[in-house]
From TrEMBL:
Its main location: endoplasmic reticulum. Keywords: Endoplasmic reticulum, Glycosyltransferase, Membrane, Signal, Transferase, Transmembrane, Transmembrane helix. GO terms for cellular component: endoplasmic reticulum membrane. The keyword Secreted does not apply. Residues 47-80, 81-232 form the ALG11 mannosyltransferase N-terminal domain. Residues 1-18 form the signal peptide. It is found in: Endoplasmic reticulum membrane. Belongs to the glycosyltransferase group 1 family. Glycosyltransferase 4 subfamily. This is GDP-Man:Man(3)GlcNAc(2)-PP-Dol alpha-1,2-mannosyltransferase. The lineage of its organism: Eukaryota, Fungi, Dikarya, Basidiomycota, Agaricomycotina. It comes from Meripilus lineatus.
């Protein structure tokens, strides 16, 4: 009974190897054609670093990391060309990926993280068919793509991880049956569904860990993310390990094997860059009574909490309403990526009207960067309500601009950014509201001293120069193979 399986497996293996060789052979012509179009003279000596970031135009903190990293490579590595981002036509080629819809939330209304992970595999396959670089760096968080890159390209893989696809915090919320944007009320209220979701997460965590271990180097944006990623890298499951001894897993392991590959045991913290040069020019005194939120209109940013907190604040301090003598305005600036985000904005506007606070709330969607800077220069408070924010680059921007941050006491803001200034337990509408009142009621000299301290800390720790030093210290250049004549 074993012979038929061996015959089929051998035939399948030979076919897969033939497909891979065909893709790799075709790549030599593709890379030569691309480099010729870019005007590169030393084609056989030029290396290509592929940045995998399908949402490079989203305008968030992750995209700032991407652009800064590419600009650094352009300045310091003249013999390296990049693809997937259009930055400088002289050294960059932009590879269009048509299957991006496969990683959209809307494509996977159920089993979203699994669906998006599977979608990223197909997206990476498309990318590799169009161009195989010499080094692949994922800056989006699609760890499952690493298998495709290793299989088709047999090249080193690195990643800058903004947040883990699945974290132990998410597991704990399912275990405790806590309703969250990643754990619906339908699931949390059912013992059977909660157990089923825990099993689903168990299987997903196993394969997510295997995927991350395909990398040669890993960078993360905060100590919170590092703690989770390091835990995931060490994750094991004896039952699933045993099941992987059974067919067809041995064949898959053979296909995905990598010579002399040593999985990373931990990730390196490289804090995201914040371009504070313009922000540090803003005067620290005479700020307007503005509470400013800067966050993409995504569910995890928890914009409804901001409205509830602001409603509580106006109820407690009616003189701060539009009809009062000390009006305060909540300004919500954010990017809208797609129809789902646009629908969330409309729902938030409706919520503000229902709460009767709409006259004190402004929604500014997809605003140009100079306009955002104007709001930062005027705001008294910078608001972030996301629980377990992986880093919080907008919080750094608040501090550099002189806006006093009021953030949820968790994740990156708690552990890395406002550790010396945010002692408030900001985890409910009431405590956020109290924080608003406390900041707006500061004595002028105390207010100025606090704004000065926050700006100094932000500029020293989270500058673009610090990011560039950390990126280079990650050792990514050690994984860039020498080009051979093809």
């Amino acid at each position: 009974m074993l012979w038929p399986f061996l015959i089929v497996s051998s035939a399948l293996l030979l076919w897969i190897r033939a497909v891979i060789n065909k893709i790799r052979n075709a790549n030599a012509h593709k890379r030569r054609s691309i480099l010729q179009r870019l005007g590169v003279s030393r084609i056989d000596e030029t290396q290509i670093v592929g940045f995998f970031h399908p949402y490079c135009d989203a305008g968030g903190g992750g995209e700032r990391v991407l652009w800064t990293a590419i600009a650094l490579l352009q300045r310091t590595q003249p013999d390296v060309a990049r693809f997937a981002i259009q930055l400088s036509p002289s050294t960059l080629h932009f590879v269009m990926l048509n299957s991006r819809y496969l990683v959209e939330d809307s494509t996977w209304p159920r089993f979203t993280i699994l669906g998006q992970s599977i979608g990223s595999v197909f997206l990476a396959w498309e990318a590799m068919l169009k161009l195989i670089p010499d080094l692949f760096i994922d800056t989006m968080g699609y760890a499952f793509s690493f298998h495709v890159v290793s299989l088709l390209g047999n090249i080193p893989v690195g990643a800058y991880v903004h947040y883990p696809t699945l974290s132990t915090d998410m597991l704990e919320r399912v275990k405790s049956r806590k309703t969250w944007h990643t754990n619906s009320d339908t699931v949390s209220s059912s013992s059977i569904l909660s157990r089923a979701k825990l099993f689903y997460y168990r299987v997903f965590m196993y394969y997510y860990s295997l995927s991350l271990r395909q990398a040669s180097f890993l960078m993360v944006n905060s100590s919170w993310t590092k703690g989770h990623v390091d835990t995931i890298l060490q994750h094991s499951d004896s039952l699933l390990d045993f099941l992987h001894l059974l067919p067809p897993f041995p064949l898959l392991r053979f296909l995905l094997r990598r010579k002399s590959h040593k999985p990373p045991s931990s990730a390196r913290i490289v804090y995201p860059p914040c371009d504070t040069r313009e922000m540090t020019k803003f005067p620290l005194g005479h700020r307007e009574r503005i509470i400013l939120s800067i966050a993409q209109f995504r569910p995890e940013k928890d914009h409804p909490m901001q409205l509830r907190s602001f409603q509580r604040f106006l109820q407690k301090y009616p003189e701060c309403a539009s009809s009062g003598d000390q009006p305060v305005t909540l300004v919500m600036i954010g990017g809208s990526r797609n129809a789902e985000d646009a629908a969330r904005v409309e729902a938030l506007k409706a919520m503000a009207r229902e709460m009767d606070i709409h006259e004190n709330v402004k929604f500014i969607v997809n605003t140009p960067y100079p306009d955002m800077l104007k709001w930062l220069s005027k705001a008294s408070i910078g608001l972030s309500t996301m629980v377990d924010e992986h880093f919080g680059i907008s919080v750094v921007e608040f501090m550099a601009a002189g806006a006093i941050p009021v953030t949820h006491a968790s994740g990156g803001p708690l552990n890395d950014i406002v550790v010396n200034f945010n002692g408030l337990p900001t985890d409910s509408p009431e405590t956020f509201a109290e924080a608003f009142e406390k900041v707006l009621d500061l004595a002028p000299e105390e207010e100025l001293a606090l704004r000065t301290r926050t700006r100094t800390w932000a500029v020293q720790r989270f500058s673009q120069e610090e990011f560039e030093r950390g990126w280079d210290a990650s050792g990514w250049k050690d994984w860039l193979p020498k080009r051979e004549l093809r």
